[in-house]
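Entry 14. Structure prediction run on the chain below.
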Amino acid sequence: MERLVSQRSDGEANQLLAEAVSGTTDGHYPAALEKLDAVISRWPAFAEAYNQRAIVHFLANQYDRSIADCQAALRLNPSHFGAMAGLGHGHAHAGRLTEALACYEAALAIHPDLDCIRVGSEQIQMLLQRSSVEGGSRSALQDVFPAEHI
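Output returned:
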């Protein structure tokens, strides 16, 4: 299923995407963003390019940009469970727990075997039960979703 989400028939688009993912993995976010911007500019209907750019923005703590790219990926591919989970991560780290929970539940509806998302969903439910956390306790959220595990 994950291969279907990221497949693109154009070899050049796939190559640039692979280079961007490699740059992201190595922590070279500006170079990865440059490649992803190029892919999106040339192939604006390539949902996975938006999803990968969302990941880079998330790792750079740019949650609103990450959210916007996840939303773009989902407009192009409503079944993109990675983008839906990423949307939840962005909302969680921005302190919007109710929105995060809705995204995680939607991701689980698409791909019920996402154990880390199920655990995160359960933890957010517990946090929401503590009414004082609704405003967005950053330390509690980072215990639930440390950036290095995304």
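Residues 1-7 have pLDDT under 50 and may be disordered.
Filed with the rest of this week's runs.
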